Every structure is written in structure tokens, then in C-alpha cells.
Records
---
Amino acid sequence: MDHQLILDGALVAKEVKESLTTRVKSLKKQGITPCLATILVGDDASSATYVRMKGNACEKIGMLSRKIHLPKETSTDELLEKIEKLNKDESVHGILLQHPVPAQIDERAAFEAIAIEKDVDGVTSLGFGQTAFGFGNYPSCTPAAIISILDYYDIEIEGKHAVVIGRSPILGKPVSMMLLNRNATVTTCHSCTQNLADIVKLADIVVAAVGKPNFVQGDWIKKGAIVLDAGYNEGNIGDVDYEACKKNASAITPVPGGVGPVTISMLLKQTVDAAELTLEKHLTC
């Protein structure tokens, strides 16, 4: 592997989307158009932008994007009722509830209401459990993106020591499980971890998912380590001090243009996967 290989997420995402375009065309010939339903509650500008980006990404590969925009006063029960209707709608293959929701809504209850076969964003506890056991169809999209980048660049996971900085239920925890399932030795660090820098220095693979700009310092990275920055902070800044860390890393993801584009492509891929599974069920009935 060349020194300072830049792990180009835009390139990975482009190839994923090209393969998805072919698969979508095949599904359409058989009478199914993959459809992702996105639910936005309230008027958060950033959330609205994310939903629009996801919708545009769907349309570019021939998928359908159904946008459900609910008022900020929506109650938990009203949101659950909407999710249940989408669960029963056979033309919808994936459901995404945009985070965050207004404070009066029980977000976890809403996530859990999403049918497992439509949980293409990997937010249910059942989906997490299946991912941990190694047979889940739809892991959380950012962890899936991280694994996809490693695979695309033929970076060996088995036998390596991976240090994950962060333990969120849709990033740090599932990516730790996915790396463990690929036979890495995994250390998961968090805000209470002592001697963090010393632990990171032991890593062959570093996953930064802490949500703090430029948090991971260059002298934390041992020579030849692989660095995957899953952070995205204001000003297009990742969780890794990129210029400092790339001096020691053998491969590193930039921000922007690293994990982010692949995360969106994984959402599309898992929606297409769900549509294909729907077709299989229809053919076997």
C-alpha cells in the first residue's frame, strides 16, 4: 500500500451507485421500483437539507423517494401511526426517520416502530442485535460505509487491532461489532476512557466517531495505521486532525469526501436490497 493513500469515498460511492443503477433497472423490468420513504418532523433547516440530498440521490439512480413532512407539533402517537402506514405499504421498501425529532417525541419508540424489513438505516435495536450476531441485512449506514471503504481498498481487517473512538448506538457500537465479526481485535473508547492517546497509538485501524472537530492528534497515530474519520463538524471539519494524522497514516479518509458519500450510497444500497428481497418473496409465494 502506498504511503499516505487517500481513501476516496466519492470514488467508492460512485461505483456503488453505478452498480445500483443496473440493479434498479432490472427491478423495474420486473415491476418493482425501489422506494425510500423519508420522514421529517418539524422545520430544522439542516435536517431538511439532508432529506433533500437523500431524495436527490435516490432519483439519480432511478429509485423513488417519498417525502413525508410532519409539523413540529406532531405527537409520538401521530408519528407512530404514520410509520405503521408505511410499514404496511408494499410500495415502500425502506423507511428513514430523520434525526433529530422535536423534544416531545419519543424518538426511540419511533425508531423501534419501523419494521425490521424496512429498517434500511439500521436504527432499530433488533437490527443492531442482528448486526452484532453477524446476520443483519441492514447495518447502520455509516458503519457499513466504513467497512465498504476498507473492502474497496483491500485493506485487511482480520487479525488487526482496531480502535473505535465513540460508542453511539448507530456508529461506534455497530462498527465495533462489524469489525469484530471480521476477526479484528477491537477496543472501543469513549469519554470515560483513560489514557486514550496511548490506546490509539496501539491501533492498526483507527475509527474516529466522537463528534469533536480535530480531536484525534497526529502523534496518536502509529506509523502505517489506517485512519477512518466518521466525524462531520461545522465548517466541513472531521474528528481527525487530517494534516497531522496523515503524516503517520498509511491510508486516511478526508472530510469531506471520505465516509460521508459512502454512507448515503449504503442507504440506497440497502433500500435496493430490501426491494430485491420483496421481489424474491413475491416470486416464491
Note: The CA atoms of residues 42 and 72 lie 4 Å apart.
---
Amino acid sequence: MSEVLERGARIEQEARFLQDLITEVERVVVGQRHLVERLLIGLLADGHVLLEGVPGLAKTLLIRSLGQAVDMSFSRLQFTPDLLPSDVTGTQIYNPATAEFSNRKGPVFANLVLADEINRAPAKVQAALLEAMQERTVTIGSETHKLPQPFFVMATQNPLEQQGTYPLPEAQLDRFLLKVLVDYPEKADEIKIVEAMARPRPRLDVRKVTTIEQLTRAMGMLDEVYIDERVTQYIVDVVRATRDPASVGLVDLAPLIETGGSPRASIALGVTGRAHAFIEGRAYVTPQDIKSMAHDVLRHRVLLSYEAEAREIKVEDVITQILDNVEVP
């Protein structure tokens, strides 16, 4: 028992800086606490996040502010139809004076990478970035380079304009740990945003509140967050219900789901549940942690059928019904 209490106290102490980090980022990015927390969860879990939202919701400002608060390197990639894989990863440059080639690293070599409007670039460019995300290495010519650690990609998609875009295939969407929907701020928050930003040169200074070393140490402590066997069973039950909704009494959902979540979805629920508990300073995962992360983990992994689209049924509603019907331990 003393060991459990000691571990709980250690995690609570270690996680305190995260609340300071959230508060500092919120000074600049107002009214997006859910989004800030989800980015931190993705960072702690050593995964990547896909954001979907209309322009002007401070997505770029958010990840830049996060990098400043942790003192991490940041780069931004604006994806366009004429982008090449070498524009992302880097290329070889010939030096006539020495008659030799040298490697020039691309913008992917940063701790935080913003892939803006990722669905506007061709498949080969998307694949180059996603390979770097998965392997954490980049090969330029005959040399293989390791990406900096931590390495976190936040990709964005604009849901409004689909003309001339290249939608990410389902297998590539699955590489993202979370898919988060960015909504408009509340009225009170929007008033604060206008008061702070409606000026020629708004102040967007973010203080450094932590270090890469402290963040890396926190990432390593996720393994110490305890997941009970019953909570693990609950995770598996939720994901399996996306494949076979009739098993939890949702017979009507069966024709609406084309493909359910794979075991990667179960793994993602487990690791993000741990990260969610860690941010709250707890040394154990509860079923509520899993419920809190379920929509962001599953919305891009559960594919609906044509019947569901014809009936204008949203994947969020399907996930909610499954959560309401799977027995909670």
C-alpha cells in the first residue's frame, strides 16, 4: 500500500507543471481548453493529432504557443498540390566547389511540426510525412537521420473546401492517435479574443514554463499509471462493440457501421486514458478517462456505411450509443 501511495504522490507532483503549461497557453489561445488538453495528451502519449475545423480558430497559434512554453523547436508546413516529398523531408544539394553532395534537412526536423491542410497535398507527400511520423527517421540519399525527440505532428484539415483535395486514406488516418474537432469559442471567450487581438500588433508572448527534459520525464512516467484489468476489459469491450454492435444490444447499429476499430484503437484508448489520468494528477485510470477519450480516439477509426450517410447519422452519435450501452465496471 505504501508503494501505491508513494507512486500516486510522485505522479501528482510530477504532473503539476502540466496545469501551469495549460494556463500559460490559454493566456494566448482563449476558449480552447479541450483542444489544449488533447494536444498535451497526444504529446505525452508520443502520438500525433489530426485537427479538423474551419479557418481562424487559432490552430497555428496554439501549437506555436505550446512550443514556446516548452522551449521546443517548431516548424510549419503549408501543404499545397505542388508540394514534393523532398520539401518535407529534405534533399541532397550538390556543391560544385567540392564536387560532393550534402544533405539539407527539411522542416520535418523539429520537435513540433504543423502540417497545415494536409489533405491539399498529393498522396506521395502525405506518405512521406506519415512515414516519418511512424518510423521517427528520415532517409536522405544514402543516409538515415533520426528525428528530434520528442517529435509531435499536428495536422489540420479544413472540412469546408473539398474541391482539389486529396483525402487521407483510412489506413493513414489510423496513424493519428487522435482526431479532434475544433469548434467555435463561446460568446464570452470570443469577446476576450477580440479585446486581446483586435489591434495592429497584438501581444502574443508566451513564457517558458517547462523544459523538454521535464516533459520527456513525464512521458516516461505514463507506464507507472495503473490500469486495472477491469478497465482494460472495458476498453476492449468498447472497441469490439464498434465491430459488432449487436453484442451490446445495438442491433440497429449493425447496418450503419462499415468498419469498426482495430486493436490499434484499443491500444490508443489505453495510452490516452493513462495520459488523461496523468494530466489530472492521478496514478490510476478510471472508466471515465476512457469515456473522455473515446470520441477523439474512435471518430476516425469507425467508418460508417452509405446507409448511415443517407440517414445523416454522425459517427459521434454512434460512438455515444456504444458508450451508453457497454457495461461500465
Note: The chain has two domains: 2-83+110-219, 226-325.
